[in-house]
Amino acid sequence: MQKPIFQTTILGSSGAMPTSSKHTSTQLLKYDNKLFLLDCSEGTQMQLKRMKAPIMKINNIFISHLHGDHYLGLPGLLFTLHLLGREKELNLYSPPGLSEIIKMQFDICKMKLAYKINYHDLEKGGETIFEDSSLKIETIEMLHSIPSFGFLFTEKQGVKNIKKEYVTKYDMPFNKIIDIKNGSDYITSQGQILPNEKITIPPPSPRIYAFCSDTVYTEYFIDQIKGANMLYHEATFRKEFSDIARQKFHATTTEAATIALKANVKKLLIGHYSARYNDKELGSYLEEAKTIFSNTCLAEETKTYKIN
Amino acid sequence: MQKPIFQTTILGSSGAMPTSSKHTSTQLLKYDNKLFLLDCSEGTQMQLKRMKAPIMKINNIFISHLHGDHYLGLPGLLFTLHLLGREKELNLYSPPGLSEIIKMQFDICKMKLAYKINYHDLEKGGETIFEDSSLKIETIEMLHSIPSFGFLFTEKQGVKNIKKEYVTKYDMPFNKIIDIKNGSDYITSQGQILPNEKITIPPPSPRIYAFCSDTVYTEYFIDQIKGANMLYHEATFRKEFSDIARQKFHATTTEAATIALKANVKKLLIGHYSARYNDKELGSYLEEAKTIFSNTCLAEETKTYKIN
């Protein structure tokens, strides 16, 4: 059976301020038919439109922290959803304070949205903030100048698949198929026992995406993200500015790569580039990170990265 | 003598919500060496960067009203100016409420700007809110669903210029030149009186730009903008939607043109197009307006319009 789509698309990759070619940091995560917005920086609604993303299908928006470069596109997007006739509730997850900002802006212009926003205040790491039959999302606690969170997307363990030839051969009834998928053996009409492991294929191993937003280098959350299929870790600076990075509670290329290595993840995606570097200099970001963790790639706007 | 530069550049031309190709409404006005921002919609700082505008030279920002499509780019721009090391004070003009929004956003992320913002609350039309030796700026009261203002930029009457041949012929001293520019006659060393009007050229007539933001059709401010060299008037809808326009406190193409005609302005610039029309349909905006006021042009992003 084909695995559901699990991918992240970069809408912005710049840190702190945009450049003429790069928006501040935002990602659009897709799992199966679900769309999640990770941060919502200035210009996000235009990026979504340019990419023809079905914005009405976004039901959950996760704001890592309340620095402007991570949420200033939100009021505009919320207003646009209203204009487009949204009626469905929308979930907003962020450290405390976002609801006050949003409410004040709409109050001042006497605006009442046609849909309800459910505000979810994030208080600590390791909390499950979203869960359905196929996906679980937990907070990851970052170490930044203000409360900041990453988000851990963990696919649920799938059920076993039955080898097709047995279904046909024994004309298995539907309810028995469910039992087998859940671990039962099968007894044929002749009374023969077919052991579960003989007639099934194990489910694919669950995939994990660890999205780590603004943070200084810290090993605090390594255990939580261990073995992730993909880790996004900010790398605001090249290693030459490790002092400035520490001072501003940000990380460098080599620090992001060190976390990837120690957490034994499969792939590292870096972004949130300082605006002091131009686009041509980003190659050196990649080189530096690769000296420590070879399977690294650069977050590039409008590009989609599969989580496999 | 060459007149100072007086021009407006369109940074955004869409109304209410951006499209994949158009930002919401903002203009960058240049008079001589002064830069003014008229509204500051989402993405303005990126537009300014793309156009290589010297953003540190903007000292006065005018927000017409507190609907998100006219100010949501402001917090990001203010933060970027801070990151770029701005120390000079910045003047923000808007209807009451903007300071609370901005302060709350910076308070929540424990951010202190390195420069001072002077907030100027706009209360009524016809008020002079900026004046220096060459330019005066007054508010124009719009009629919208919330308090909304336009801005009237009036060039100061210049001084007379002396005909060069007289300066050379009589070797006029500097202090006399100043007197003549201010209206004095000139007495030659032989005692001959040269009348002021003989030796001077009248100053160029002062130019006026009337920027009228979101408003329903109203003739209330026509006297104030009479004879302007250029009028920007919103034209959110084509005439087919005049009922919706009225209901939403917006204007149509033919209404904007009617105001231009009645105010006897020289040129009309229309914009704030509804996102329901695509770029190809904007030609019909122009056609409709031109049936009433022929010297109309469309606000097109990144284009500059001279006020002459």
What does this structure look like?
- The structure is a homodimer of 308-residue chains.
- In chain A, 25% of the residues lie in helices and 26% in strands.
- The radius of gyration of chain A is 22 Å and the shape is globular.
- By secondary structure, chain A is α/β, with parallel strands linked by helices.
- Chain A binds chain B through residues 16-20, 23-24, 42-43, 45-46, 49-50, 65-69, 72-73, 75-76, 79-80, 83, 97, 100-101, 104-105, 108-111, 145-146, 275, and chain B through 16-20, 23-24, 42-43, 45-46, 49-50, 65-69, 72-73, 75-76, 79-80, 83, 97, 100-101, 104-105, 108-111, 145-146, 275.
Compact description:
The structure is a homodimer of 308-residue chains. With 308 residues, the first copy, chain A, is α/β, with parallel strands linked by helices.
Number of strands of chain A: 18
| Approximate shape of chain A | globular
- What is the class of the largest domain in chain A in the CATH system? Alpha Beta
Q: How large a portion of the residues of chain A is in β-strands, by DSSP E?
A: 25-35%
Topology:
2 copies of one chain form a homodimer.
Chain A: E1 6-12, E2 26-31, E3 34-38, H1 44-50, E4 58-62, H2 74-83, E5 90-94, H3 98-108, E6 117-121, E7 128-131, E8 135-141, E9 149-155, E10 161-162, H4 164-170, H5 174-181, E11 186-187, E12 193-194, H6 196-199, E13 200-201, E14 208-212, H7 222-225, E15 230-234, H8 242-247, H9 253-262, E16 268-271, H10 282-290, E17 296-298, E18 304-306
Parallel strand pairs in A: 3-4, 4-5, 5-6, 14-15, 15-16, 16-17
Antiparallel strand pairs in A: 1-2, 1-18, 2-3, 7-8, 8-9, 9-14, 10-13, 11-12
Helix pairs in contact in A: 9-10
